[in-house]
Amino acid sequence: MKGNQWGYGKEDGPSIWHKNFPVAEGDRQSPIDIIPKEAPRDPNLGPIVLNYDQCTSLNITNNGHSVVVEFDDTDDRSVIQGGPLGNPYRLKQFHFHWGGKGCHGSEHTVEGMSYASELHLVHWNAVKYKSFGQAAEAPDGLAVLGIFLDTGDDHRWLHMITDALYMVKFKASVTDFKGFNPKCLLPSSLHYWTYLGSLTTPPLHESVIWIVLKEPIIVSEKQLGKFRTLLFSGEEEDQRMRMENNFRPPQPLKGREVRSSN
Ligand SMILES: NS(=O)(=O)c1ccc(C(=O)N[C@@H](c2ccccc2)c2cnnn2CC(=O)NCCCS)cc1
Ligand SMILES: [Zn+2]
């Protein structure tokens, strides 16, 4: 694996990442397998509060690892707060992880069971840190809201994303994506599990307060299939590699506690 190039293949995938990113074998790595009966309810954990109404989505991009919708995070217009968080965290981007045809691709698992896909809404602590990059290196710098995707009927709003995927088929492609409010991707319940972890892709910084919702959202196989029309590869590359199975498997808990909201 050359330099800081990493991927999800045999030569550059999760089992090799530790060579360039030794923290891959650290004490608070993500994702993890969540065991509900070992995640006690903590009465001090209040509800999480999402203020996304003034959010400003900017663009959608294929960064060669996932498809990412980025937001204007120059002020506190869209934040997550409450729950395990000491202050509001600013929404920066969201992206997905998914499997191959008929194979599940969530990162967190629940008692060994994985979901078809997982959505990550990435927020950073702009109260304590001056930039995302700086926050991404601090133990309380990031808060990622994880939402499982299960298959069933069409999701009534996901088409707004899947209809745009043909515009970002190749790595490093980007297109405008304004006026999208991720509130429409939330399940009805905001009950969650929470634990201290890391980015699930290199540089794997141990800077994430994870908040994983218990209730999945439902999307159709057809909608999920559109994610698999994306490519890991750039337009100029002759080798076309379908973007799928872009998930890291669960990592050792190493004595960490997982708590449950009420
Ligand atoms: N899966 S997750 O929710 O845990 C997750 C969340 C955010 C990031 C992230 O922002 N990574 C970038 C970064 C930039 C500055 C400091 C540190 C990290 C980065 C580094 N090289 N490329 N990127 C872009 C990138 O990975 N973007 C996120 C797409 C998830 S596959 C990665 C994973
Ligand atoms: Zn992610």
Describe the structure.
The protein has 262 residues and is mainly beta. The chain has one domain: Alpha carbonic anhydrase (Carbonic Anhydrase II, Roll), CATH 3.10.200. Helices cover 6% and strands 27% of the residues. The chain has helices at 132-135, 159-162, 221-227; strands spanning 33-34, 48-51, 57-62, 67-71, 79-82, 89-98, 109-110, 117-124, 142-151, 173-176, 192-197, 208-213, 217-219, 259-260. Strands 2, 3, 4, 5, 6, 8, 9, 10, 11, 12, 13 and 14 form a 12-stranded mixed sheet that branches. Strand 5 (79-82) and strand 6 (89-98) form a beta hairpin. The longest helix has 7 residues, at 221-227. It is globular and about 55 Å long. The termini are far apart. It binds the ligand NS(=O)(=O)c1ccc(C(=O)N[C@@H](c2ccccc2)c2cnnn2CC(=O)NCCCS)cc1 and zinc ion. Zinc ion binds next to strand 6.
Task: Describe the protein's topology.
Layout: E1 33-34, E2 48-51, E3 57-62, E4 67-71, E5 79-82, E6 89-98, E7 109-110, E8 117-124, H1 132-135, E9 142-151, H2 159-162, E10 173-176, E11 192-197, E12 208-213, E13 217-219, H3 221-227, E14 259-260
Parallel strand pairs: 1-7, 9-12, 9-13
Antiparallel strand pairs: 2-5, 3-4, 3-10, 4-6, 5-6, 6-8, 8-9, 11-12, 11-14
Bound molecules: the ligand NS(=O)(=O)c1ccc(C(=O)N[C@@H](c2ccccc2)c2cnnn2CC(=O)NCCCS)cc1 and zinc ion (ZN).
